[in-house]
Amino acid sequence: ELKVEQNPLFLSMQEGKNYTIYCNYSTTSDRLYWYRQDPGKSLESLFVLLSNGAVKQEGRLMASLDTKARLSTLHITAAVHDLSATYFCAFPRSGTYKYIFGTGTRLKVLA
Amino acid sequence: DAGITQSPRHKVTETGTPVTLRCHQTENHRYMYWYRQDPGHGLRLIHYSYGVKDTDKGEVSDGYSVSRSKTEDFLLTLESATSSQTSVYFCAIGAAGANTGELFFGEGSRLTVL
Q1: Are A107 and A83 contacting, i.e. CB atoms less than 8 angstroms apart?
Q2: pLDDT score at B96
Q3: In this structure, are residues B104 and B19 in contact, taking their beta carbons and an 8 Å threshold?
């Protein structure tokens, strides 16, 4: 069964703290995507990871991909309230353009 | 921002009635998708299209049909709506080939089936 597991599902953290969100997927894929969704809004693309070992950084967020371990991480450095959102990882089913999404990690950053 | 428009944005209907959601894009992207979002399930793929008149099923296609007669429009139809189809529906588009493959999403259509 094709699965994408994110953990934690919910994360409440203090401003200024660091934390990592994990995305495990059940089949081979050479690319992985991270999206952000604010409450009641649509999804927007955050990171596109296109190969094993890829690392991308944008502000306080850094994403990495290990295709051999089938694992991607989204690291948050010195969290701020504006990062409060739900974060999804997604990957294409092998040989197709069908994108499978994780269940999402709801992040709440407390002032 | 990618030019994606979903309509209607909100709809309340009764069990057993047909419903059609429309997704319109101005980007000329080859791939179009319909996802539903429900608490605890993330986004689940209903159907997707890889060209005009070319569609394929996703993870949760039962009870849904789609059509794509033009590059810019992708329609999702619930032939006979049920309460389990109450959800937020997102359309997404993606380019093919050497592109990065990221998807761009519409604003969502909230459907309530009473």
Answers
A1: yes
A2: 64
A3: no
pLDDT average per 10 residues of sequence, chain A (111 residues): 89 95 89 95 94 93 95 96 96 87 95 86
User: Which residue is it, tokens 């359309």?
Assistant: B91
Contact A72, A32 (CB under 8 A): yes
Query: Worst-scoring range by mean pLDDT, A37-41, B4-8, B37-41, B94-98?
Result: B94-98
Contact A84, A108 (CB under 8 A): yes
- State how far the Cα of B89 lies from the Cα of A65, in Å rounded to an integer: 29
Residues in chain B: 114
Number of helices (H) and strands (E) in chain B: give both, helices first.
0, 11
CA-to-CA dists, residue A92 to A96, B21, B79, B108, angstroms = 6, 24, 29, 21
B102 vs A: CB within 8 A: yes
Distance CA B108, CA B89 (A): 5
Q: Does A25 contact chain B (CB < 8 Å)?
A: no
From CA A33, how far away is CA B91, in angstroms rounded? 17
In the block, tokens 């179009």 appear at B32
Distance from CA of B21 to the nearest CA of A (A): 16
